[in-house]
Amino acid sequence: MSESALAEDQPPNVPNDGWGTLFRRPHLPVVVVLASGIGLYAMNLYFTAALMPSVVAEIGGARYYAWASTAYLITAVVATMFVSRFLGMQGAARSYVIAFLTFAAGTVVSAVSPTMEVFITGRAIQGFGAGLLTGLGYAVIRTVLPGQLWTRATGLVSAMFGIGTLLGPALGGLFAELGAWRTAFGGLAAIALVLILVTIRSLPGERVGPASKAAVPVSSIVTLALTAAALSISSTLTGWLVPATIIGAAALLAVFVSVDARNPDGVLPRLTYVRRGRLKWIYLTVAALCAGVMTENFIPLFAQELGGFPPLVAGLLGAVLSLGWVIAQLFSANASATASSRYIRIAPWLLTGGLLGYGLLQFEAPGTGVLILWAGLLFLAGLGIGLAFPHLSVAAMSSTTDQLEGSKAAAAVSTTQLIAFTLSSAIAGNLMAIGGDSLLVSARWLILGTAVLTFLGTFTSFAATGRSTGSRSPR
Fold it and tell me: Which of 139, 6, 15 is nearest to 81 (CA)?
């Protein structure tokens, strides 16, 4: 649920306590658990991206490079569908313990993996734990904190995505510089285990309401997972099997939309599928922006292998896009309704322009001057993402006059992000494969191909901010 929706649900006439109350006992340990869980999810995604060149150099499996993030994201999407059930059956404390244990177990598997196949298996386990942590971070706020702190707690939890994407590449680059990628994963697992102790001491053990009675959208989840898997597999194939598998993935995606649209408890809200509604365009705009975000997984690789820059520099370069994202988000957060629509429309242009420039400047041994240009263009791309993201959840919420449906629509923005990350990661593997043995050609295909995807957002953003004629709740 979005920060605005939470604010509306607060008890009336309750003062909005300051940040100091949130960071003092008895609330501080609770806040540490909520924020750290989402921070682990966000940081680990880009932390691993900075370490992947070192992982591949030691255990091989370069052709499965994109699978490291795809497997993580697929299981994270699946896990978010089970958050309410875990809370209903296990309560907040036990749900968090299960999530942290799963995350730690997957991290350990990746840390000790002798082959890329084992490493990817660990990433899949890790992703399920991370998906639970992401959903729990929002779902338990109302039950573990007083109403006057809901808004600030939600804002803090949301900010952890930006902090995680900033710290992840830099820390990953540092460990890669030291040649200690296995130690890095071991340290991440240790942090998760320490957080279990904090969880047991701070969160309530009782159940958080009744177990959800909504049916799990198994058909939707399976077809979505198969779509991502088919796209990822196609990047490892050759000849006619490549286009055949991609066509099959497109057909599976169409099946997902068809099945999900008919399911009252689908992955996405029913309003998504209203013919003249604008919610689908909001989600497609989110997806376009998220496609641009996924280039961060490959920036450290290109900087090291093409630019010849040390891992730490490559990791820091990978954080530049997120830096632009965070700065722009702080700037645009208080924009008026008119300005927010303008920001949403401008965002895909900035993102696409930054990626185009960065892609065209890919060549071997570029030197420090080009490195600075890379950083500037990636920062520009990040500005585009940050300008729009704070307002897309609000746009989703205002896509209907029904308050409950609006809350569902806003909450599904994060689900859309995970889906977009998963599919764009799989597409990235195919774009990389086009280059064959030439990393330079692969880099150009990946970056410029991603720019084509983000350019589609220039069209969807206009539809997303236009007047909807289908905003009533579907029956």
Answer: 139
The reported pLDDT for the residue numbered 318 is: 82
Give the Cα separation of 36 and 27 in Å (integer): 14
Q: How far apart are the first and last CA of the chain?
A: 22
Q: How many helices (H) and strands (E) does the chain have?
A: 20, 0
Instruction: Quickly name the fold that domain 271-475 has.
Output: Growth Hormone; Chain: A; (1.20.1250)
- Give the pLDDT score at 20: 66
Would you identify the CATH topology of the domain 1-213? Growth Hormone; Chain: A; (1.20.1250)
Query: Do residues 110 and 93 touch, judged by C-beta distance below 8 A?
Result: no
- Alpha-carbon separation of residue 271 from 3, 253, 421 (angstroms): 20, 19, 22
d(C-alpha 200, C-alpha 30), whole Å:
10
Radius of gyration of the chain (CA): 21
**Would you list the domain boundaries of the chain?**
1-213, 218-262, 271-475
What sign for the dihedral angle of Cα 235, 241, 245, 251?
Answer: positive
Amino acid found at 375: A
The pLDDT value given to residue 296: 83
Question: Who contacts 247 (Cβ-Cβ below 8 Å, separation ≥6)?
Answer: none
DSSP state of 23: T
Low-confidence stretches of the chain (pLDDT beneath 70): 1-23, 142, 147-152, 154-155, 158-159, 162, 205-214, 333-334, 403-408, 410-411, 467-475
| Cα–Cα dist 181/184, whole Å | 5
How big is the CA angle at 317 (ends 316 and 322), to the nearest 5 degrees?
Answer: 85
User: CA of 321: how far to CAs of 25, 294, 296, 318, 358, in Å?
Assistant: 35, 10, 7, 7, 11
Which one-letter amino acid corresponds to residue 269? Answer: P
pTM (two decimals): 0.76
